[in-house]
Amino acid sequence: MAGVVATNTTLTRPTSVAAHPVSAQAGGLSGRPLTARAAEVVALVRDRAGDALAVIGSGGVMDVDDALALSDAGADLVQVYTGLVYGGPALVRRIAAEPRRGPARGPLGRRGRRERRGGRVRHFGLRLQEATDRLGTLCVGVDPHPPLLAEWGLPDDADGLARFADACVEAFAGQVAVVKPQSAFFERHGSRGVAVLERLLADLRGTGTLSLLDVKRGDIGSTMQAYADAYLRDDAPLAADAITVSPFLGAGSLAPALDLARATGRGVFVLALTSNAEGPGVQHAVPAGGGSVAGDVVATVAARNAGLDGVPARPGDVGLVVGATVGDAVQRLGLDLAASGAPLLAPGLGAQGATVDDLAGVFGAAAHLVLPTSSRDLLRHGPTPGPLREAGQALAARCSAALRHP
Ligand SMILES: O=C(O)c1cc(=O)[nH]c(=O)n1[C@@H]1O[C@H](COP(=O)(O)O)[C@@H](O)[C@H]1O
């Protein structure tokens, strides 16, 4: 055997087409629904085949960036089918005009492949859209609470954390759109706990699973730059695809993180309306010029997302955190979340009392931007990865159905 052609059509139905009247019919999908999966499969084939086989990348190549993604994933040649139908022969000329690059190799190469295409940054919003289209709309929180460790029969030490993290990777990597480790539960074990977090982030990176590190950082500009360096640089030991930040030292103080995230193709989720009972006292407060503190946060994020280049319909790279527990606060405060273009991280499901059925009411016209997240309520299905995975997939399907575009 001289080589492998990867891939063909896909039998999965991403959420972007699930509502289409014929989506239940049998048969494989071509075009855009294949793009992200094809790059993953090509990377897998290249990793397994090494240099022994030629790899021809095919599937969802609709534009030059898609072709470069397959090349970066390890393809020696790239094929176009559906892209040729819609893009015409000029697409071939544009792809062929790109300088040929050898496939990236090794752990650093793999990281570079996911975030950059030919020196061009792949925006976080686009990567998130691809992941939710393919895997459904759910972010799984990895919160190794002491009571959960005990329930799972694990010690409350770095070894327990490591086994907890491994089970989560086995259950959720490649199965849900985003995995969100909660830094606090690792930090409480000092440097050994942080080392486990570092390995967890590397494992998620290695499996192509988006990581959202929940650290809720926020500080004066110069210190914020250091926090940004810690999580948002390509070469940071704790690099994640996105982080949570707190705007309550003034949303403008977050600029170093937002700038670095944009430069490296990462995301930042800014707290706006948090899920806890103490949040409204600060977030609903009316500043001197009117509106609300949360409204100012939303406006800052909307301004950031409006400046993005590329396809206007895709979600922005800067997200907002709005708890699923906030009831009618979004409407009462007059927040136009849909116009912000921000992916909306929605914690509070299960353990904090919100349900999947609350999501449509809380988010209204912005429902299509919502990324619900659950930690304890989902993790109680452990420690065996199988039931954990099934619970995650079932919850993702329920969330996707509840948030589907009208
Ligand atoms: O940023 C967050 O993720 C977050 C924001 C918020 O407003 N409320 C909130 O609960 N979270 C986090 O989401 C997780 C919720 O965990 P569960 O209540 O167990 O699902 C925790 O790690 C919280 O720190």
From TrEMBL:
Top-level taxon in the UniProt lineage: Bacteria
Pfam families xrefs: DHO_dh, OMPdecase
UniProt keyword list: Decarboxylase, Lyase, Oxidoreductase, Pyrimidine biosynthesis
UniProt keyword Lyase, yes or no: yes
Cofactor: FMN
Enzyme class: lyase
Catalytic activity: orotidine 5'-phosphate + H(+) = UMP + CO2
Domain Orotidine 5'-phosphate decarboxylase: from-to ranges: 137-391
Entry EC number(s): 4.1.1.23
Pathway in which this enzyme or protein is active: Pyrimidine metabolism; UMP biosynthesis via de novo pathway; UMP from orotate: step 2/2
Residues annotated as catalytic: 216
Family classification: Belongs to the OMP decarboxylase family. Type 2 subfamily.
Entry protein name: Orotidine 5'-phosphate decarboxylase
